[in-house]
Design a protein that fits this description.
The protein has about 130 residues and is α+β, with helices and mostly antiparallel strands. The protein contains three helices and seven strands. The longest helix is centred in the N-terminal third of the chain and has 18 residues.
Length: about 130
């Protein structure tokens, strides 16, 4: 399998022979994501209707990088685990939005979380 990225034309050519097993497909998806990142600009925020993953599993861990990033991972039904390393400033910004959301909806956080709540089932796309 070969992925050729042409940044001048903002295009990607994929050359492959035969069928892919799950591991090879996972590798192809990751490589296509890297190729897309090379030919597109990151958008400031999603515009229009976007696919939404309802009930994704997640995992969070802090201080595991030398830069003291907060590491947050979500499961995606097609991509598997998607990992993010967040700076303290980004975490503070997310906290502000979450506090506003919880205040607006009068939601109450549960004192305990079950394993299903934390790890989820991978979510569904809506």
């Amino acid at each position: 399998m070969k992925i050729l990225v042409n940044t001048s034309t903002a295009s990607v050519k994929v050359e492959m022979n035969g069928d892919l097993n799950a591991e090879e497909l996972q590798h192809l998806i990751a490589e296509l994501g890297n190729a897309r990142a090379q030919i597109t600009k990151a958008t400031e925020r999603p515009m229009g209707q976007q696919a939404v993953i309802v009930g994704p599993g997640f995992w969070a861990q802090w201080d595991i990088t030398k830069d003291q990033h907060f590491c947050l991972s979500f499961t995606h039904p097609g991509l598997g685990w998607v990992n993010f390393a967040l700076t303290p400033i980004t975490v503070e910004g997310i906290k502000i939005y979450m506090d506003q959301y919880l205040g607006a909806t009068q939601a109450r956080a549960s004192a305990t979380a079950t394993e299903t709540d934390v790890f989820g089932g991978g979510g569904t796309v809506h």
